[in-house]
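Encode chain A's predicted structure.
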Amino acid sequence: MEKKALSFDVITDNITKQLDSSRQNWLFGAGISFESNIPLMIPLTKRIGSIIDGSGQTKNIEIYKAISSELDEKCHIEHILSHLGDLIAIATRSKSKSSSIASQSYNQSELANLHGCIIEAIGETVRYGYSHNGTIELIGKQEEPIVEIEHHQNFVKAIFANRSNLLSRSKLTFFSTNYDTLLEDALALEKYTVIDGFSGGAIGYWNPVQEFQNNHSHPNRCLLYKLHGSIDWQRDKNSGLVRTRYGTKYLSKKSDIMIYPQATKYVETQKDPFSFLFSGFRTALTQTDDNVLITCGYSFGDEHINAEIETALALRNNATTLIAFIQEAPDIDTGVVVNERLDKWLADKEFHDRIYVAGKRGVYYKSTIPHQPANGADLMWWTFKGLTNFIKTNDYE
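Encoded structure for chain A:
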């Protein structure tokens, strides 16, 4: 007998039960910080281009424009940095210590200088904020930052209120691709201790084995793995990797911020600290007991992270369930409904019964045909604010 298809309400109830799980892993992307005045990739790219263009550094302007002209129009700052990183690697290996862009040769030092300036510009933009709604441009500055923390604090309050009876026997782990410090700041303001791999005080030193392995059992402590680094991480030639106080004289080289916003991150993830962080991500996804990975603000654009998730889902006896809160990004020409990666997973009979996609048009389960509420309304649970409201009230609109 053919099984009756699950209804929207039944599937949504299943998602709610997963959000009550005692073993949760959250993966966040840039989308959760958008309403906090930290730009998404396209506006960030335009902002970095403006900073470089207004820097007065003629060679940086020339190289940046040359690289941009060689890349596809859809490319953003990650692709520019990836391309620049490749050129630096070629220059390092070559006899001439240079690389060519559009028949023009640039030496290793010139390329590295631009790379450092871009990293610094990203750090400044993320730290102080930037917003452009098409008509009004807001630029955060050291003396007048525009970054808000309200949405992150509301999320922290909601998720812990939802788990108050389970807190003593729960394991809650956060993974983030974001460079900002909003999540750890919000956790601290709500009196939860953040374990991020660093020991020390306001300035911390990288000590992941001690921190991650011995500090996860206390109910008021949360593990945070920042998979792509952070604006307050810096590689110091004497002290190694440190978590810094911003603006100190003794740790002042902003181009040494430890972020790797590149489209091809695989090589960097094989090095410390990223090798350790990704190992923690891999372990968290590989569980034989009930386990859930919940994503928000993550568009599944990072192939290395996607590969880790897919490998885990495909493992025999793995009990991890994926719940993705995400707005659909359809492509009529190719038939993509949600996005290329999630469409593929929803069609994979090996594990699609452990995947829920909560989108704007409905919820997807074992199919790219959305299950919709009775009133057919657009759903807002895919946004960070909407997800917080869903956790608090079960209201998905």
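The two ends are 35 Å apart (CA to CA).
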